[in-house]
Specification:
With 438 residues, the chain is of the alpha/beta class. The chain has helices at residues 2-10, 13-24, 32-48, 102-107, 131-140, 180-190, 238-257, 279-286, 316-329, 346-349, 382-400, 411-420, 424-430, and strands at 51-61, 64-71, 76-78, 80-81, 88-96, 114-118, 145-149, 175-178, 194-202, 205-215, 222-228, 265-271, 293-299, 308-311, 333-336, 355-360.
């Protein structure tokens, strides 16, 4: 065991790949930088010792950012268009709905108005409300435009896809993100005044893909080790999700040195187009034999803290496997027994495939620097990448062990979990409820 650990602590493979990804620049889904990132990841997986490394391409509805603004009677406020927003110029009365809770929309008349909401959810509210749910409440109410204000100070407008109210690739009304400071100024000075929201963008046909490679024995059953390559175009995408992709490259290198310990094939997948609707993982899931997938280890936005946090989706065997690794290494690994219907494990887990969502613990609420221009390499550390890669390598070997049984769940069970956690409400609102039963 000591040799591969020592080699991982000395390895620069993951960190070098992280630098490669952030230095590409714009890795927005369907744009040239994303494909460059996919091809670089393919090559990095091959260099790590994985076999049959390739990029499997698919068609995509693209979205290319232009200028945007919020113009008030006295000012022109900086903003960024939210991906999948349609282009348009809308002039209407601004209405401030604070956090944009469902009851806020129920009490207000938003028809024909520009809706302003913040990105936070009050601590007293019983569930998380995603950006897309707030957008869909605005669309449902007949709003003319949507302004999404960061709740974290620092002059950082947030990004994030809005999609369509029917689950389509392009939204229904223009949508922009503004900083916390701009949002506060709009609410204080211009609530009830006419403002103009302008979004310029293009929606060309585009191509994305998944970088794929294999490790271990050629068994029918397999474990997926995954991340996503794409990132929002306003930043380097260092933590979200250069970190995750760099980690699976480092883990692949360590697994290649331990291939004789693998009882089950490991399929490494670095997805494209995660940020615009989990498109790459949806394509993979549609073409997969879900019964053949033993478990998923999906790494997304780790390295923010040295302690790994694994969301286990209530699979007790996954929690137990993480506990054994933590005990074996005398190193903390946090586990959270809840469902996360976001990121690239979800197209599989929703049908009962056991899966981890791998991130890291954080003392701050929300995404932190994620989905802003401050998601940059300088906030990450190579030692965290190496430590987490060691633990995740051991975890993959653990779940790939032939003696470790991880039963699948029925889709009805996963749906019940979502209902118990009050997540079904928002998923049904946004068109993300995947089940044809109540």
């Amino acid at each position: 065991m000591a040799d591969w650990i020592a080699e991982t602590f000395r390895s620069d493979a993951g960190w070098d790949h992280l630098e490669t990804l952030v230095d590409i620049g714009n890795r927005m889904a369907g744009q040239p930088g994303e494909m460059a990132g996919l091809e670089a990841t393919r090559d990095a997986l091959a260099d790590a010792g994985a076999r049959d490394a390739r990029v499997e391409t698919f068609d995509l509805q693209g979205w290319v950012r232009g200028d945007s603004s919020v113009t008030t009677p006295e000012t022109i406020e900086e903003s960024i268009g939210l991906p999948r927003s349609p282009a348009g110029d809308v002039s209407a009365e601004l209405i401030d709905l604070g956090a944009g809770l469902p009851e806020d929309f129920e009490r207000a008349d938003v028809e024909g108005k520009v809706v302003l909401v913040t990105s936070d959810v009050p601590s007293y509210f019983d569930r998380y409300i995603h950006r897309t749910e707030k957008y869909h409440y605005a669309v449902e109410g007949g709003a003319a435009a949507f302004v999404y204000a960061n709740h974290v100070p620092g002059q950082l407008p947030p990004t994030g896809s809005v999609g369509g109210s029917d689950g389509g690739p392009i939204g229904d009304i223009p949508a922009v993100g503004v900083s916390s400071e701009t949002g506060a100024r709009l609410a204080r000075r211009f609530d009830g005044a006419d403002v103009t929201v302008s979004v310029d963008c293009e929606t060309p046909d585009a191509e994305s893909g998944n970088a794929v490679a294999e490790l271990g024995p050629d068994t029918e059953e397999y474990v997926i080790l995954s991340s996503h390559v794409d990132a929002h175009d306003i930043a380097e995408g260092a933590r979200d999700n250069g970190a995750g992709t760099a980690t699976i490259v480092e883990v692949a290198k360590a697994l290649a040195a331990r291939e004789d310990e693998l009882d089950t094939r490991v399929k490494c997948i670095a997805y494209g187009a995660e940020e615009v609707g989990l498109v790459g993982s949806e394509v993979e899931a549609e073409n997969a034999d879900l019964e053949a997938i033993k478990a998923i280890v999906n790494v997304d936005s780790n390295m923010g803290d040295r302690t790994l946090e694994l969301t286990t989706h209530r699979f007790d065997e996954l929690d137990a496997a993480a506990g054994r690794v933590a005990e074996r290494f005398d190193h903390p690994i946090a586990t959270v027994p809840r469902t996360v219907p976001h990121s690239d494990h979800w197209p599989f887990v929703r049908w009962g495939v056991p899966g981890y969502m791998v991130s890291s613990k954080s003392e701050s609420a929300g995404r932190g620097w994620g989905h802003t221009s401050a998601d940059t390499l300088d906030k990450l550390e190579a030692r965290t990448l190496r430590e987490q890669s060691i633990l995740l390598t051991e975890l993959v070997v653990e779940v790939a062990d032939g003696s470790v049984e991880i039963p699948h769940e029925e889709p009805e069970t996963m749906a019940d979990y979502l209902k118990q956690e009050d997540q079904a409400i928002g998923m049904k609102k946004t068109g993300g409820w995947p089940y044809d039963f109540e």
